[in-house]
Every structure is written in C-alpha cells, then in structure tokens.
Amino acid sequence: MYKDMLVIGIAGGTGSGKTTVVKKIIESLPPNEVAVIPQDSYYRDSGHLPLEERQEINFDHPNSIEFELLVDHIKKLKGGDVINQPIYSYLTCTRAEETIPVKPKHVVIVEGILVLTDPLLRDLMDIKIFVHADADDRLSRVINRDIVERGRSVNKVLERYEKTVKPMHVQFIEPTKQFADIIVPQGGKNKVAIEMITTRIEKALMVHK
C-alpha cells in the first residue's frame, strides 16, 4: 500500500531555515501530495510539572522528544493507517487533548532540529537533509521568533541561547550532518537545492500515477 512511501528527514539548527525549505518544497508540488510531520508536535507532555519547571525545559536535547511515538507513527503511515498527531503548546509546555488526524501519503517529510539524532527514525528515512546556516543568522531568527511566537523577552532568549541552544547545537545537532545525504546551505534561499529535492519528490509521485 504505502510500503514504498518516500520518507524525507529535514534537520538543521534552530533558526536555520528548515521550515522555509519545507514550505518552498510544498509550494512547488501539487496540493495534498505530501504529509509534513513536525518534530515539535512530539515534545513530551510536561503537564505534571509546575509552570516554573516547564519554562526551563531544554527543548534542544533529544530526551525532550518522544521519538518512540514519532517512529511508531511513521511506521503506521507506511502501513496505510491514519495517525493522530499530537498538538504541543510552547506557551504552556503541554500537549492538547485534541490531535490532528494525518492520512498516509506517498511522500512524508519529517522536519525538526533533532530528527537525525534518533537511529530508529533515521532508518525509516529514504532521504536525509541537513539545512545549514551561520550561527549569527540563526540567532537573529531565534530572537525574532521567540519574542513574537513564544512570548519571551530578548534577555530570556539570549540567556536560553547561551545556556542550551548553542551547546546543544554543538553536542547533538551539528554532528548529525554526517548522516545527511544532502546539505543545504542558506536554507530557503538555496533555489538549486530546493529544485533538486522537489524533482526527486516529483519522480516518486509520478510512480504512483
């Protein structure tokens, strides 16, 4: 059924432009042909912790992700089953009771900073992509995003960057470049790389027509 599903992993540091790359790939393809599974939906629920402790969670450590569930969901999609993707809130650091039903597609993109750190998840991927950006560019994007989307102050963002984002990037994220089949410098600005990836996806979709 979907055993020949093309699973693409897209990783890279916080603020590297991964989401833009995914968006541009989707925009170049026919509608409803690709399922996107964001790693961020699979952060472990922290509702049992006090709010102060929740706000100190290290979101850049692999232990913060429920990889077991993510791997299980990709396997289920390959088997033709609909999955219930969790909904995670950065503001409360908890999972919602509601979920998002995701139907299997012939192409699935798994996107997130840590998706190449888990060997079981990597084994399910046909193409592994690492989006690279300079540290300064990533920091400026992180500051803008965390202030607007996650309600953090500039000082809090910078403190978090120094304490967790930067060291976790060096320890866990940057080393996963070695697993990548394709490294995309400049993120969403790299038209050539995006066209190459899109062409590969289009070929996979043509097989099922």
| Strand residue content | 15-25%
Structural class: alpha/beta
CATH architecture: 3-Layer(aba) Sandwich
Summarize the helix and strand pattern as letters: EHEHHEEEHEHHEH
Average pLDDT rating: 90
Major β-sheet annotation: 5 strands, parallel
The CATH homology group name? P-loop containing nucleotide triphosphate hydrolases
Strands, helices and their partners?
Layout: E1 6-12, H1 18-27, E2 34-38, H2 51-54, H3 67-78, E3 83-89, E4 94-102, E5 107-111, H4 119-123, E6 127-132, H5 135-150, H6 154-173, E7 182-185, H7 191-207
Parallel strand pairs: 1-5, 1-6, 2-5, 6-7
Antiparallel strand pairs: 3-4
How would you sum up this structure, described in words?
The structure is a single chain. The protein is α/β, with parallel strands linked by helices and 209 residues long. It has one domain (6-207): P-loop containing nucleotide triphosphate hydrolases (Rossmann fold), CATH 3.40.50.300. Helices cover 40% and strands 21% of the residues. The chain has a five-stranded parallel beta sheet, covered by helices on one side. A two-stranded antiparallel ribbon has the order 3-4. Helix 1 (18-27) crosses helix 7 and helix 5 (135-150) packs across helix 6 (154-173). The mean pLDDT is 90.
Could you provide a short overview of the structure?
This protein is an alpha/beta fold and 209 residues long.
